Amino acid sequence: MIKCLLFALLLFGSEMVMGQSLLLKKTIQIHFDDKLGKVVYHHMAENETLYAVAQKYGSSIDDLKNSNPQLQESHLSASSQMVVPINDSNIVYQKALPSRSQYEPLYYQVKPKDNVFRIARVYFDMPGKLLLRRNDLERADLQIGQILHIGWLKKRIEALHVIEGTAHSNIGPSEYAQRFFNQRITSNARNEVAFWHKKNNSIGRFVMHRHAETGSIIEIKNPLLGHQLYAKVIGTIPEHLYAEEIDLVVSAELAQELGAINEKFFVRTRYLANRASASR
Predict the structure, then answer these.
(1) I need a surface site. Which of 2, 107, 115, 126 has the fewest CB within 10 A?
(2) What residues contact residue 261 under an 8 Å CB cut-off, 6+ apart?
(3) CA-CA-CA-CA torsion for 140, 141, 143, 145, nearest 10 degrees?
(4) Binning pLDDT at 50, 70 and 90, where does residue 99 land?
């Protein structure tokens, strides 16, 4: 009888460990590095970019390069492991579950010598009682390898999502210009304020605009330098994400070709207005 009971307990324990192992494969597990502090070990997927990884974990391309010296010499290939530093300010411990579109659940695997106090108060800035309640634990007894739900990781939210290192289409600059003149332009030349992220290595001529039709081609001119280019409108700027004075958000390549120095700069534009703007 006792042997059967012990066997059942061992079987239950092994199933629980297997279940938690499967859980880790689908979620974000945080680790501790002696030099970098809180980190996540990310395995690169095929065609995944540094920009996409930075967005996923609330990091930046510069932080990724500084934490992974191998990036200075060569590009990571698919399945390569990358160390992603996690900023404490991006971890949310509040009781209510945040929006799934902006946050990802964050887990920690219990190591030898770990206890509730060390995990809650030393590793993470949260009450021990909250850690126990979040994981439905009545007692502070932890097992090595046990998976604990810590909180949520806040992702970076930027309006302009373009692929780093490659354009969204095979259309060249000359064809962009031809498509522009084939459109029925519904706006006169306007003075507008453009914005770009200097730390975003986005490649391609793309913009998000408040009033231009998505999928159309926009004409953009830097009046100070005389540089005039054509770019594809890939979407509308989401409300409340940028200051009201910002009319368009441009990719890094486009901003550099226009000769932009500051993140915010003035341009002259002509474009096909969307229905909402055309009806005003």
Answers:
(1) 2
(2) none
(3) 0
(4) low
How far the first Cα of the chain sits from its last, in Å, is 81
Do 179 and 238 belong together in one domain?
yes
Highest average pLDDT, of 15-19, 178-182, 213-217, comes from 213-217
b/e map 178-215, b = 16+ CB within 10 Å: eebeeeebbbeeeebebbbbeebbbbbbbbbbbbbbee
Order of all β-strands in the sheet with 31-33: 31-33, 37-43, 81-85
- List pLDDT tens digits, range 167-214: 344 455 667 777 787 777 666 889 999 999 887 767 778 899 999 988
Distance between CA atoms of 19 and 227, rounded to whole angstroms?
58
Domain range enclosing 274: 173-278
214 to each of 129, 243, 273, how far by Cα in Å?
49, 20, 9
Same domain, 197 and 270: yes
Going by C-beta distance under 8 Å and a sequence separation of 6 or more, which residues neighbour residue 211?
A: 187, 247, 271, 273, 274, 276, 277
Is residue 217 in a domain? yes
Note whether residue 105 is domain-resident: yes
CA distance 273 to 210: 9
Instruction: Write out the H or E segment, with its range, that includes residue 107.
Output: strand 103-109
Whether residues 129 and 29 share a domain: the answer is yes
Q: Are residues 216 and 96 in the same domain?
A: no
Compute the distance between CA of residue 104 and CA of residue 77 in angstroms, rounded to an integer.
Answer: 25
**DSSP-H helix ranges across 27-168:** 50-57, 61-67, 116-117, 128-134
- Say if residue 25 is in the same domain as residue 142: yes
Residue 3 lies inside a defined structural domain of this protein? no
